[in-house]
Each structure stands twice: as C-alpha cells, then as structure tokens.
Design a protein that fits this description.
The chain is an alpha+beta fold. The protein folds into two domains: 12-98, Phosphorylase Kinase, domain 1; 103-265, Transferase(Phosphotransferase) domain 1 (Transferase(Phosphotransferase), domain 1, Orthogonal Bundle). The chain has helices at residues 54-69, 105-112, 117-133, 191-206, 217-226, 229-232, 235-242, 249-277, 283-326; strands spanning 12-14, 21-31, 34-41, 44-50, 79-87, 90-98, 103-104, 136-137, 146-149, 154-157, 164-165. A six-stranded antiparallel sheet has the order 1-2-3-4-6-5, covered by helices on one side. Strand 1 (12-14) and strand 2 form a beta hairpin. It is elongated. The chain starts with 11 loop residues before the first strand and ends with a helix.
Length: 327
C-alpha cells in the first residue's frame, strides 16, 4: 500500500484540537488500515498511527482505552493522544501511543533459547485473560506483532488493529495462526480463537519458517509436534488449545505452569539418578596407595643420600692419597 499522506522524515504533524506537535523520525510499519510512524514529542519517542479510515481509528482507540482501564494489563501500548491532522484541507485522524522498544518474539527466542517460551507464553495468557474478560478478542495474534522488552523481560504487542469485540467476525488474521485456515474452527471472535493462535505461536517458535496445510490438518499439526522432541513436551497443552478445549486463557496458563513444573521435577530426578549411578570411589584404597607411594619416595631419597655420602668419602680418600704421593 502506497502512503496516501506523503509524509517524509522531519515533517511535523500538529493536532487540530490539542495542538500537540509530532516530528516524524521514520516509518515503523504499515497495513491495510493505516501507517505507524516513530515520532518525537517534546523529546519523548512515541508511535503515531495515521489512517484515512475514521472507523478503524475509533475502534483501535477504544481498545487502547480499555487496556488503560484494566489494572496490570500491559499487552498493548498505552494511549497518549487522539486528534485530527489537517492535510490539504482534509481532516486525517490519528492517535499517539507508547513506543515499545524490544526484540521481535522469534528473534528473542532464537538468541536466548526456547527455555524462555513458557515464561513469555504465560505472560501472554495472563494479559489475554484480562482482555477477554473485558469482552475483546485480540484476533490477529502472531509473532510479528509481539515484542519482548528487557528490564524486565516482558511480552508486549505493537498492533491492536485486529482486536475485535467478542461475538463478531474477526477483522484481521494471518493464515498460519488462523483456525479457519486450518479448518479447525470458525472466525468468530471468542477466547478459543486467541488460544488457538497461542498454540501456533509456540509451534512457530520451533518451526520459524512455518509450513502450509496439507491433507488432514489436525494430523499434520500432531505430526509436526511429534517430530520435534522439545516441542513434544507441550503436546497435551497444544492439542487442547488447537481443538478449542480450554474455557479460558487462565486455564491454559495454569496447565502450562503445571506442565513446566512437572518437566523440571523430572529433569532433576534424572540428574539425581545419573549422579547416584556413578561408581563410588574407594577413598580408603586410594589413601593406602598414596601412603605407599610416599614411603617409596622416602626410601628412594634415603638411598640417594647414602650413595652421595659414600661417594664423597671415596673422593676425599682419593684426594688425600694423591696429595701424599705428590709430597
């Protein structure tokens, strides 16, 4: 999609109603419903989304407002400003939100290891549970929209464009994470739709290049899970999410933590077995051997000294004999 706004780096966007000024730094991303830019606002970096679709802006602003009302919900960015920008005698709506800095989810996992997967997915499920309780379904949930921040490590989302009111048709989706694409459910906005996407995000962490559907989709997904030893550990959890068996994100989170905890106990047990199976060293025998070795060394030293002493006496006698002959 070409930019319909002809916005260049360094351009200043001024709100018609609140008169805040935003200096454009660079483009962050674009989609079917608008473009997001990084901007400077009084020395602070913010993200500004501009769209010529008033309905889209209003819908996304309502989602961000609901995020801000819920204590502890940090899945999406904080909302700072909503205004209009007058461009060529036309009002263009925009909103300004928190600029979230971090690493792309898949990049973070690649660099830091899948050991972080249960931690990040647990955080994601907590935030999704709060979102669902407010009557929203995230919709277009995928790694491309997820960032992992540092200090502390936290999963955050940078795009709420697909968020849909529960019961309505999903507005935006990406095939690999869409249960409709896999023939495993409808595109009706409900918590189970998001939980299917969470399962596919976990699978994507082990299959970064993804794959297309072939034949019986459920069988294909089961096979993909079984073929990866580490991913297979999450198989019970993944299959329940894929088939829509979880009633809530909180339920899925509890099972994830329980599964992770049991895996940790199993690993510790295996380590203890390995340690206990190692042959016990006979320290008493080693001590005896060590003592005998020391005794041999002392005997050897004593014999050496005796030899040197005798050799010295012989030398002295020989020198005295030579001196007497000379005299």
């Amino acid at each position: 999609m070409k930019s319909p706004f002809n916005i260049s780096i360094g351009m200043v966007i001024t709100g018609k109603w609140h008169h805040n000024c935003y200096t454009i730094i660079k483009e962050l991303g674009r989609g079917a419903n608008g473009i997001v830019y990084l901007a400077d606002w009084n020395g602070k970096r913010v993200a500004i989304k501009i769209s010529d679709d008033h309905v889209t802006i209003t819908s996304e602003v309502n989602v961000l407002k609901s995020f801000s009302k819920a204590q502890g919900v940090s899945l999406g960015p904080s909302l700072f400003d909503v205004d209009d920008w007058v461009r060529n005698n036309k009002k263009v709506p925009f909103y300004v939100m928190e600029y979230i800095e971090g690493k792309n989810f898949l990049t973070f996992i690649r660099q830091n290891g899948t050991v972080w997967l249960p931690v990040l997915i647990s955080q994601l499920l907590s935030d999704l549970n709060d979102l669902h309780r407010q009557g929203w379904v995230f919709g277009d949930l995928k790694p491309d929209n997820l960032l992992v921040t540092s200090s502390p490590v936290k999963m955050r989302c940078i795009d709420v464009g697909g968020t849909t009111g529960e019961g309505r048709a999903i507005k935006e989706f990406t095939e690999f994470f869409d249960r409709g694409y896999w023939g495993l459910g409808s595109r009706r906005a409900e918590p189970t739709y998001d939980l299917f996407a969470v399962a596919m995000i976990m699978i994507n962490a082990f299959y970064p290049k993804r794959f297309n559907k072939q034949g019986d989709c459920l069988t294909q997904l089961k096979r993909a899970i079984d073929q990866n030893k580490e991913l297979k550990q999450y198989k019970p959890l993944l299959l329940k999410a894929i088939t829509g068996k979880y009633k809530s994100a909180l339920e899925m989170k509890k099972e994830l933590l329980k599964l992770t905890h049991s895996q940790g106990k199993d690993k510790n047990t295996q380590q203890n077995i390995v340690i206990n199976q190692q042959p016990t060293k006979n320290y008493s025998n080693r001590s005896v051997r060590h003592t005998k070795t020391k005794q041999k060394r002392r005997k050897g030293s004593r014999h050496t000294l005796e030899t040197v002493f005798i050799f010295s006496i012989i030398c002295i006698i020989y020198v005295v004999y030579i001196m007497e002959r000379l005299l």
